[in-house]
Amino acid sequence: MIREFRPGDEAAVYDICLRTGASGEDATHLITDPELLGHVYAGAYMKLCPGFASVVEEEGDVLGYILGAPDTRAFEARCEAEWWPPLRERYPDPGKPATTDERLMYAIHHFHPAPDEIVASHPSHLHIDLLPSTQGKGYGRRLMDRLREQLRRAGSPGIHLGVSPENRRAVGFYRALGFTVLAENEHVVWMGETL
């Protein structure tokens, strides 16, 4: 079933983030600190935008999630004020990152905002991850439909996301849902949809 995020789901969301963190594949073997991916890509949404977070639950286990922010610029500002400072105290800036852990620590200190040209027309954004055992059951589409409706009710005209060009399966999934490529470079494909 799909349900709204509840306090207590954080550990499961962090675990899913790690187990899908290598372009959709398990990143457990790539990272020493298992919380880092969750800190960078999931935690702030659960703390700052819990009303736009939903999870997939089967037999009491959380197996997937969608996390959204209705106003990307407001979310980025709140992260800068509330989310990143304690993490920056906990994790030193590695300077020139060499490992996956160091790249994530670098991201904590040098967060890159979404491009202005994308946010102007697609001000909301999302992250979605499903464990392999949950994929192919329609949960991804249902999670997306649920978040789209929440964002429409909040008055958003459009939604975007960034995906690794290496994650071809995800790019295909978003295209099948009606997302189009807004911009891309060697690191990220920005995709969006008008709501």
TrEMBL record:
Gene3D superfamilies, per the entry: 3.40.630.30
Signal peptide: none
CDD domains reported for this sequence: NAT_SF (cd04301)
Ranges of residues in domain N-acetyltransferase: 1-195
Superkingdom in the source lineage: Bacteria
Entry-linked SUPFAM superfamilies: Acyl-CoA N-acyltransferases (Nat) (SSF55729)
Name this polypeptide is given: GNAT family N-acetyltransferase
Native species: Actinocorallia libanotica
